[in-house]
Amino acid sequence: MPSLWKRITFSVASVLCILSVVLLVVALSTERWVTGRILCKTGVDIVNASDPELDQFIGDIYYGLFQGGKTKKCGLGRRRSKIYFPKLVRTLNGGLHMMVILFLLVAVGFALVSLSFCIYNARKVPYQSIKGHKGLYLWNCIALFGSLGVLCFLAAVRHHSLTDRVANYRENLFVLVVLDDSLDWSFWLGVGSVATHFAVCGVVAMSRIKMPKPEPKKPEEPTITALDLLY
């Protein structure tokens, strides 16, 4: 049976693993990885709009790993449209996009493996090193490597004009220009999962600290004086 300190630390590590899985699943299933504003350049050119009138031609865009959407204003009112997987992949760099999804799925899988090992170590003392600290370091490093798929997505956004491709997907009449785009909360959830695996490794390392055991107090021996011996 592991000590109380080890049970506490591995229980905390288990909670962190669960948190990592939740963060990754939510990040994968939501579509707020990138948000931005788009300008309908065609509409601006047609009416020769000046600066005060540009707001009438500025819409918004958002997308994730599996779907996205945009609202464009080209002088005909608001027009909303959605883009779904796999049409989204055809617009993007398909290989890089699939790599991001694969990496994140690997991260989810090994986070679950790490969770099972944390629960095992909280209940039993492993006889094999791979089931103990070394195994937990290994599984968390693999999950951490998978979570770094968010960096691949960041590279696609910054170096492959990802937002511009999504904005002009199936646009035959209008040309849309991206005014600005930013990483939204779905992306930062993926970054948060990276931090949780660093935290798990730190907690597992703390579990190896040997806490001092309280020593039982020895009963005090009665002192016998010369006066006691006379009686």
UniProtKB/TrEMBL annotation:
Membrane topology recorded in Swiss-Prot or TrEMBL: Multi-pass membrane protein
Domain of life: Eukaryota
InterPro entries: Clarin
Residue ranges of the TM segments: 96-120, 136-157, 185-207
Main location: membrane
Subcellular location: Membrane
CC annotations in GO: membrane
Alphabetized UniProt keyword annotations: Membrane, Transmembrane, Transmembrane helix
Example GO BP: sensory perception of sound
Pfam families in the cross-refs: Clarin-2 (PF25807)
Family according to the record: Belongs to the clarin family.
The protein, known as: Clarin 2
